[in-house]
């Protein structure tokens, strides 16, 4: 049976990349350092996960501290970029469990593998380098927050990926991520599947609030979700 899904768009940190929340730990440290706050990692994850990082800072400040201050947010963001670069230089980064195996399986099935992320391109490419993942070999395309005008939950990154890969029907695209905003991004793009995974920022209960098509706990579970979607689509048509 031919797969109805022709492209899977994966989030990076927490979904395909295991970096032990370095990004959000660094974000928390930058916010607390510049602002003199005492935010927890849980608050940072709840309000900032999956977002472009300057927007994440603004959202965290507003939702956790009832504070709107663009100048402060920019100062925090600049410190965050410096600290994150240093962290990535010394910390070990791993692929999430079964990511490499899934990429190979999807390639064998003729399904395109795209990474998209709230990181800027420089940060995202540095991650790929540490993982020894190459565009055109391990994955088919990388789309980052700095490649588009509007970031998650807007659909711009997925739409750009579709345009680059020649896909015109969003029902043939699956989006998977570890935060509610990933699910919302897929829904706003009209993806056939918008899937949450519990390996990163948000719990199954938190992910469920975004009404995903499925919540999974292992990347390889995507294969059965795609298979069932293809069967049901064939039955309907």
Salient structural properties:
single chain, 237 residues, alpha/beta, Rossmann fold, 2 domains, 6-stranded parallel β-sheet, two-stranded antiparallel ribbon
Q: Which strand order does the major sheet show?
A: 5-4-1-6-7-8
Strand content: 5-15%
Whole-number count of domains: 2
Mean pLDDT: 92
Total helical elements: 10
Largest sheet: 6 strands, parallel
Explain this structure to me?
This protein has 237 residues and is of the alpha/beta class. The chain folds into 2 domains: 7-19 and 93-236, HAD superfamily/HAD-like (Rossmann fold, 3-Layer(aba) Sandwich); 22-90. The protein contains 10 helices and 8 strands. The protein has a 6-stranded parallel β-sheet, sandwiched between helices. A two-stranded antiparallel ribbon has the order 2-3. β4 (112-117), α6 (121-131) and β5 (141-144) form a beta-alpha-beta unit. α3 packs across α4 (70-90). The two termini are 14 Å apart. This is HAD family hydrolase.
């Amino acid at each position: 049976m031919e797969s109805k899904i022709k492209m899977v768009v994966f989030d990076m940190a927490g979904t395909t990349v295991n970096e032990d929340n370095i990004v959000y730990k660094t974000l928390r440290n930058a916010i607390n350092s510049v602002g003199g706050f005492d935010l927890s990692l849980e608050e940072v994850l709840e309000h900032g996960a999956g977002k472009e990082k300057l927007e994440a800072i603004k959202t965290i400040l507003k939702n956790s501290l009832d504070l709107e201050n663009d100048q402060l947010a920019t100062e925090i963001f600049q410190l965050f970029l410096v600290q994150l670069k240093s962290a990535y230089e010394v910390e070990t980064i791993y692929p999430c469990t079964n990511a490499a195996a899934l990429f190979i399986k999807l390639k064998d099935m003729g399904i395109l593998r795209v990474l998209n992320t709230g990181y800027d391109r420089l940060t995202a490419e540095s991650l790929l380098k540490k993982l020894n993942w190459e565009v055109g070999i391990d994955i088919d395309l990388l789309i980052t927050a700095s490649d588009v005008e509007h970031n998650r939950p807007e659909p711009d990154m997925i739409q750009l990926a579709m345009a680059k890969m020649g896909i015109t029907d969003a029902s043939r695209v699956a989006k998977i991520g570890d935060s509610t905003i990933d699910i919302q991004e897929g829904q706003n793009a009209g993806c056939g599947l918008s899937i949450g995974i519990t390996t990163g920022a948000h719990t199954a209960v938190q992910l469920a609030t975004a009404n995903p098509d499925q919540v999974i706990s292992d990347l390889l579970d995507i294969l059965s979700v795609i298979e069932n979607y293809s069967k049901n689509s064939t039955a309907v048509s």
